[in-house]
Amino acid sequence: VGPGHGLQLLNEARSLVIPAYAYRILDPKQHPTPHAFCFISSDHGTTWEMGNFVGEESAVECQVAEVHTCGRKVLYCNARSSRGARVQAVSYNHGLDFEGGQRVETLVEPPSGCHGSVTAFPPPPDARCQDSWLLYAHPTDPRGRKDLGIYLNKSPLNPAHWTKPSILFKGLCAYSDLQYMGVGPDGSPLFSCLFEYGTHRQCEEMIFVMFTLK
């Protein structure tokens, strides 16, 4: 499971959702391939069920975010891949099934991929549309794990709407966990990010930073 945070949904059951992945033997003549999915509990963790796998695309470590769009709540999944770009999919039934598993070419991956983090948040009050926005953290260099960037998507279900990254940390870095913290002191959405970094290797130390959308 994980790494990174899970979710408590805003549905009637206040379901708990834990992103995960598993290796599947789809062809006995081939190596097992990883596929992302979610564990879901609708009774506050007493029992759990396993959701279906995210499409046909091979996907490893993933994170999910509950997105409010067009009057409905959608579970968005963003997953690691070793094929040069992230994989994203959406669920309309709280993580049991995912649709539209596809590569997002803007969200580049290093050669072996790397865990990334995603969080949904309400847009600033002056935004024309009040549907959720998404923020995503991940190393930005396609050649290796370095230069942690922050990407923004104001239309989360459209993979073409991811912005170019703003660099949060220059240098070697790896896994991260991103979280929305409410409204910041400047009135802009406030976020925190915990991530691995180092001078000689990507995971020598951990660093925690806070920043606003502005």
* CATH architecture label: 6 Propeller
Number of domains: 1
Low-confidence stretches: none
**Radius of gyration, CA atoms, in whole angstroms:** 17 Å
Major sheet: size, sense and barrel closure?
6 strands, antiparallel
Task: Give a description of the structure.
- The chain is mainly beta and 214 residues long.
- It has one domain (7-212): 6 Propeller (Neuraminidase).
- Helix content is 0%, strand content 52%.
- It has no helices and 14 strands.
- The chain has strands at 7-8, 16-24, 33-41, 49-50, 62-69, 72-79, 85-91, 99-108, 117-121, 133-139, 146-153, 166-183, 189-198, 205-212.
- The strands form 3 sheets. A 6-stranded antiparallel beta sheet has the order 9-10-11-12-13-14, with no helix packed on it.
- It is globular.
- InterPro entries: Sialidase, Sialidase_fam, Sialidase_sf.
- Its EC number is 3.2.1.18.
- It comes from Mystacornis crossleyi.
- It catalyses: Hydrolysis of alpha-(2->3)-, alpha-(2->6)-, alpha-(2->8)- glycosidic linkages of terminal sialic acid residues in oligosaccharides, glycoproteins, glycolipids, colominic acid and synthetic substrates.
- One of its GO terms (biological process) is oligosaccharide catabolic process.
